[in-house]
Amino acid sequence: xHDWITTDIEIKVGSNxxxxxxxxxxxxxxxxxxxxxxxxxxxxxxxxxxLSADCLELVSPERRxxxxxxxxxxxxxxxxxxxxxxxxxxxxxxxxSEIKVLSxxxxxxxxx
Length: 112
Known about the structure:
Elements: E1 10-13, E2 26-33, E3 38-43, E4 48-52, E5 56-58, E6 66-69, E7 78-85, E8 88-93, E9 99-103, E10 107-109
Antiparallel strand pairs: 1-2, 1-5, 2-3, 3-4, 6-7, 6-10, 7-8, 8-9
């Protein structure tokens, strides 16, 4: 299972999904079953589906988006993406209001 898989983040269903009607649809991860490696996703088309982690793609946040850190020492902390500088994002953490410069590859749109 991908290291970035966690709840309450926006994903996009990839083209390798068995149900082609779901290809490209965005949604939010609601539950992660580590044992079976199945992910329950509430899709923006109103459908709730259980999918393999291999079918999911992380949606990169944009400036001013609420973010969840999905990797590294700050994993699972929340914040707001203040700016993007190349492959790095400047994040104001919700806890303590610290400012961190983090790789965009470990930032996800937070969707509680």
